[in-house]
């Protein structure tokens, strides 16, 4: 599951990358039995970091709680950044460019 999360994040960044040669400036990862973290940065201004922990290990309410962020420079030259939490309450992104739902 952790490998899948890391793979999907890296795949998304690869798809968003502009054409041309991009080099990896920093790449770190640490994967344990009940937690993980990774971070990377590329020469085109793309960066991401994420960490997660297994909550309620061994119970029926076992879940992975994740927090992280990613940023990239879009075709319009603007740097977009998203921070997020993903846990038993779902995926909760936030960013200056993302719409915010009105209060209920």
TrEMBL record:
PROSITE patterns under this entry? CHIT_BIND_RR_1, CHIT_BIND_RR_2
In the record, which residues are listed under signal peptide? none
Give one GO term, molecular function aspect.
structural constituent of chitin-based larval cuticle
- Keyword Nucleus present in the record's keywords: the answer is no
Q: Which domain of life is it from?
A: Eukaryota
Q: Which UniProt keywords apply?
A: Cuticle
UniProt cross-references to InterPro entries, sorted A to Z: CHIT_BIND_RR_consensus, Cuticle_Struct_Prot, Insect_cuticle
Write down the Pfam families for this protein, in alphabetical order: Chitin_bind_4 (PF00379)
What would be one Gene Ontology cellular-component term for the protein? chitin-based extracellular matrix
The record's PANTHER family line, in alphabetical order, gives: ADULT CUTICLE PROTEIN 65AA-RELATED, CUTICLE PROTEIN
Protein name, UniProt field = Larval cuticle protein 65Ag1-like
Please give the organism.
Answer: Drosophila pseudoobscura pseudoobscura
- What's the name of its gene? LOC6900714
């Amino acid at each position: 599951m952790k490998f899948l999360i890391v793979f999907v994040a890296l795949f998304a960044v690869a798809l968003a990358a502009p054409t041309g040669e991009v080099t990896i400036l920093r790449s770190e990862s640490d994967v344990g039995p009940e937690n993980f973290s990774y971070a990377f940065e590329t020469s085109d201004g793309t960066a991401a970091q994420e960490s997660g922990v297994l909550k309620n290990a061994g119970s029926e309410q076992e879940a992975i709680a994740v927090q992280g962020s990613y940023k990239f420079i879009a075709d319009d030259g603007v740097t977009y950044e998203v921070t997020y939490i993903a846990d038993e309450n779902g995926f909760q992104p936030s960013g200056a460019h993302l719409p915010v739902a009105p209060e209920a």
